[in-house]
Amino acid sequence: MLKKKEKIVKQTSFVKFDTETKKYNSKFVRFVSLYRYTNFYQKCLVVVSIGILTGFLTLILAEESGIYYGGTGAFCQGIARFTYVILMKNMPENENINIIVFQLLYWGLYLFLNIFLTIFAYKKIGKKFAILSVIYLTSTQLSGFIFGTIFDFLKIDGLLLFGDTSTVDTNLNEYGVKCIFFYTTWFPTLNSNGNFDWTNLQNASNTSETVKSIISSENLTKSMLLFIYSSTYAIITSISYAIVFILGGSTAGSDYITVYLSEKKNKSIGAMFMILNLSFLLMGVSIGTFASASYIRYEYLNWTTFFTPNLLSSALWVLINGVLIDKLFPRSKFISIKAWTNKAYEISEYMRSFNFPGSISIGSRAHTNKIVETTINILCPCIELPKVILAIRKFDEQCAISSYICAIDGEINIERSFV
After folding, report:
1. Who's near 201: CB < 8 A, 6+ residues apart?
2. Residue 340 and residue 367 in contact, taking contact as beta carbons nearer than 8 Å
3. pTM here?
4. Over the stretch 372-416, which tens digit does the pLDDT of each residue have?
5. CA 120 to each of CA 127, 251, 257, 352: distance values in angstroms, whole numbers, following the listed order
6. Helix pair 127-153, 109-124: axis angle to 10 deg
7. Could you give the count of Cα atoms lying within 13 Å of 299 in the half-sphere of its Cβ?
């Protein structure tokens, strides 16, 4: 008789672990609170405040130190500096009038050029965008003009926060030309008192090693200071520019073209910013430094007057600005958001009600203990993230939310950033 085989049942024991709920807080994007501004007049007030502050900082960090700040502003800087050199060389007795002309050109010419660019932005980009940009432009230029004129008339010194970056060459310094040399081909002579005489320049081959060492040391120190000024100015202006972009405006000038091309070609603002600003920077330096110095003395008509620390530090400002703006205002990047919540359907309906620009889907999964877990998955531009967070928190204040920047292949309907 066959014996029944005994069935061996393997039992698996489950160990119960104690669990606890922990709250995490992540900063998804910078300046989240600014995305919540919906009142247009509040936006205008913030833009005016940023504009006044930027105008003052431009004066003490860029204009006084000799940095060109890129864009159409660099072109206007070049025109103003070259005009001032011509006036001071031919009419030195009218110094006060020359100062007013310089300030009017430095700040006013930029305003004038922006009349045509603003009309372009109004028609091609949007009404509110153009208005906010004009408000920023006007507050920046007026504050810079007022502060600059006051400081010039009162002969206020000490505006250079990190140190003096004026050229050691008194030929250039007398006419306000901001130009420091990496390599100097012409040097001053030493007079009977042991002081440098810049009215009598001589070639490097006829200059003593002592004189060369002193001048080279001065230029090196001032060059390092210029890069400190440009880095500081780049960080500060990147923040102010990003705030204005978030509020729906721009800093005007070449930024009108930057935003238009960015929207048209769906490229990052930072990349377009760098390309356009570097182009205008080269024009500004050619006029404001190279042409100005060459007009004063023919000896400066060489490559060392163009490729100066002033040019390279200004280029550094443009590059830092472009990178930081993309980080602070990631307009062209997409983000994938996932929230674990039992209010997924309510959130979805609410977001669809105001025509949310992105993709929304809901997923669910049943667990062994018959608990159903629902998630809402959202794909949208990074700048829409604050709206998404607010919408989710409106229905579920405690749910977990995760997000990550993602690449996207294909087409998706999105809302225009600027109107």
Report:
1. 171, 186, 187, 188, 189, 297, 299
2. no
3. 0.75
4. 678 888 888 777 777 788 888 888 888 888 877 776 666 666 655
5. 11, 14, 9, 33
6. 170
7. 16
